[in-house]
Design goal:
Length: about 375
């Protein structure tokens, strides 16, 4: 079998890339290890930057997003018994975020691809890739391609297809994780709340008017099964408590623990292989950047391929890695900063005082709040 672009992985990166190429008349085949059902129900991120929303609109996969997505023009930071609103849109040139689950983005992209026809093969694990020859070895045989897009996430096989010595890896692992729940209860507040508390971080988010998405800082190797529903609600209640406000509770539909790491592999290209999204980089989720970075990489690669197939040379393909890495490192820095400002890092009282001082600064200085806001909604200068 032969195609122009072989895409490994049907997550946000692979599906977005496939959609953009399809609209430009470029052939692709998407190979995905898991079932459609599994991919569509894997609960992960929920915050879309303005740039991500704009791209999904241009790609004509935003009808449901435009109906069901919830626009937020601010977030709250809570610490020391106070809750402060950061007015994102006021500070960041009227740009805001949209709450729409990654599951829904993925469902919309899959539905669009299946309707228009280019191949999307589920339950087809890729075993290895040959970046020099442009060959993908998968369970059903071989796929020859002009270009391979490694969109197979952090644990995929594409990155390890790059010969030893080519990649430089930068990595930090955090000594904590997030226990995340999806609960069948109306959100108790209409915007996100990021909370710093002596017992650890907590985040109040949502998916819809009836579904809340909440997180608490936990040990990274804890199992979600070790947490009873009562223990989760108790921890959320204590960490987000505020005079005159109440956290509503409801049945927990899903729970899971995610480890936290920062990771970048440079460069993001070797031979005919281009790494896209989590296959090349991971951010801790505190800045809500993972999904947005994956979509931005896909756009950068699609634009470069459209140029190349259009006979406009390979300058953009050559600068793919450099262009993406500028944006990636900005998001790495922002996510690291948010993570270390908001989580319980140790029992060290000095460190805690510094965190509280930083939080007070960010919520009282317009300049500091603007810096948070423009990074959170996505920097246009990094597009
Ligand atoms: P993925 O979504 O990982 O997609 C990769 C795809 O490749 C998958 O479908 C996988 O099945 C497939 N694949 C893997 N190996 C192979 C193979 N050998 N052959 C074929 N297919 C293969 N970000 C946030 O901003 N907020 C969050 O709350 C948040 N929570 C997260 C929770 C978890 C558990 C994880 C893992 C990530 C979370 N993220 C979060 C990050 C965000 O979800 C990712 O950045 C985003 O999914 C990246 O998209 P991607 O397409 O690059 O990779
Ligand atoms: C969500 C996830 C995040 O990582 C974040 O920073 C904000 C919200 C969410 O899943 O809703």
């Amino acid at each position: 079998m032969r195609t122009q672009v072989g895409i490994v992985g049907a997550g946000p990166a692979g599906l977005t890339l496939g959609r953009l190429l399809e609209r430009a008349g470029i052939e692709s085949v998407v190979l995905e290890d898991r079932t459609r059902e599994y991919v569509e129900h894997r609960i992960r991120a929920g915050v879309l930057e303005q740039g991500t929303v704009d791209l999904l609109r241009e790609a004509k996969v935003a009808d449901r997003l435009d109906h069901e997505g919830i626009v937020h023009s601010g977030i709250h930071l809570q610490f020391d018994g106070e809750r402060h609103r950061v007015p994102l849109a006021d500070l960041a040139g009227d740009r805001s975020i949209v709450i729409y689950g990654q599951t829904e983005v993925v469902k919309d992209l899959i539905a669009a691809r299946l309707e228009s026809g280019p191949p999307l093969l589920f339950e087809t694990p890729v075993e290895s890739v040959d970046p020099e020859r442009g060959v993908i070895h998968h369970a059903g045989g071989e796929l020859e391609c002009d270009v391979i897009a490694g969109c197979d996430g952090f644990h995929g096989v594409c990155r390890s297809g790059i010969p030893e010595g080519v990649l430089t890896v930068f990595e930090r692992e955090f000594p904590f994780g997030w226990l995340g729940i999806l609960a069948q209860v109306a959100p108790s507040i209409d915007e996100l709340v990021y909370t710093h508390h002596p017992r650890g971080f907590a985040l109040l988010s949502l998916r819809s008017a009836e579904l809340s998405r909440y997180y608490v800082q936990c040990d990274p190797d804890e199992s979600a099964d070790d947490w009873s529903d009562d223990a989760i609600w108790e921890e959320l209640r204590v960490r987000t408590a505020l005079d005159g406000w109440r956290l509503e509770e409801g049945p927990i539909l899903e729970k899971g623990v995610t480890g936290m790491r920062s990771f970048v592999a440079e460069p993001m290209q070797h031979g005919r292989l281009y790494l896209v999204g989590d296959a090349a980089h991971i951010v801790p989720p505190t800045g809500a950047k993972g999904l947005n970075l994956a979509v931005a990489d896909a756009r950068t690669l699609a634009e470069a391929l459209i140029d190349w197939y259009g006979g406009n040379g390979d300058d953009h393909l050559r600068s793919y890695s450099q262009k993406c890495l500028r944006r990636v490192w900005r998001a790495e820095q922002f996510s690291y900063w948010m993570t270390t400002m908001l989580h319980k890092l140790s029992d060290d009282a000095f460190e805690q005082r510094l965190q509280l001082s930083q939080l007070r600064y960010v919520t009282s200085s317009r300049a500091a709040a603007t810096s948070l806001a423009e990074n959170y909604v996505g920097l246009t200068t990094m597009a």
